[in-house]
Amino acid sequence: MSKAEKLERILTAAPVVPVLTIADPKQAVPLARALVAGGLTALEVTLRTPAALEAIRAMATEVEGAVVGAGTVLDARQWHDAVKAGATFVVSPGATAGLLDAAQNSPVPFLPGAATAGEAMALAERGYRFLKFFPAEPAGGIAYLKALAAPLPDIRFCPTGGVSPKNAKDYLALANVVCVGGTWVAPADALGAGDWAKVTALSREAVALRAR
Fold first, then answer.
1. What pTM, to 2 d.p., does this model score?
2. How many CA atoms lie within 13 A of 116 on its CB side?
3. Which residues belong to the active site?
């Protein structure tokens, strides 16, 4: 299976990819279990906290059914650290030469970010059919993605940034959207209280958003 096929399988498993920023590594396993129980299996742990790599490692080794990825990966060093920790896909808000070189030399699939038609075209030239559209709402949102569909028919996007239960279904209705990324399925208050039942309930609501 090619890396593109692996990534497509990950992104189509559910309509929402949770974007998780974990400060306390003890939250990682129960959080992942709650998300998977609700039907969200592809989990993006952002490398924005010192606990991120430990969280990825714990989720990848202890949570059955979880497909754990690393987000906010900005350079080749972070790429290698994330993969070593157990990340099975990598997400970045953009794309640099160093990251693209790391991706080319790795068996782990990459979801690079793009915010303009030019960035999307440059990544398409390098063989990427699936892109993160970030930051989705500030970059033009649903109207912008609609405008990209005709000139870039072979690219599908995962919009992230400003996506919420209020607009997620409208994003998912677009033919060039494969899934959306969102933080709302793991709110800070639920994590702080250890309210894993709330996380599972929000995950089930997110799974029900699939428009097609």
1. 0.96
2. 4
3. 44, 132
Hey, what are 106's tokens?
């790795």
Residue recorded with tokens 């969280």: 55
180: which 2 tokens?
A: 């959306």
Which amino acid is it at 105? Answer: N
Domains contained in the chain, CATH given: 3-205 (3.20.20.70)
Q: Give dist(CA 103, CA 88) in Å, integer.
A: 12
Listed in sequence order, the residues at least 6 apart from 79 whose beta carbon sits closer than 8 Å to its beta carbon are 70, 73, 90, 99, 102, 103, 106
What separation in angstroms does the CA of 12 have from each of 7, 16, 23, 42, 193? 9, 9, 28, 9, 31
Spacing of C-alpha 17 from chain mean position: 5
Condensed to tens digits (0 to 9), the pLDDT of residues 133-183 reads: 999 999 999 999 999 999 999 999 999 999 999 999 999 999 999 999 999
Give me the phi and psi of 132, to 5 degrees please. Answer: -80, 130
Structure tokens at 39: 């039907």
- Written in H, E and C, the secondary structure of the chain is CCHHHHHHHHHCCCCEEEEECCCCHHHHHHHHHHHHHCCCCEEEEECCCCCHHHHHHHHHHHCCCCEEEEECCCCHHHHHHHHHHCCCEEECCCCCHHHHHHHHCCCCCEECEECCHHHHHHHHHCCCCEEEECCCCCCCHHHHHHHHHCCCCCCEEEEECCCCCCCHHHHHCCCCECCEEECCCCCHHHHHHCCHHHHHHHHHHHHCCCCC
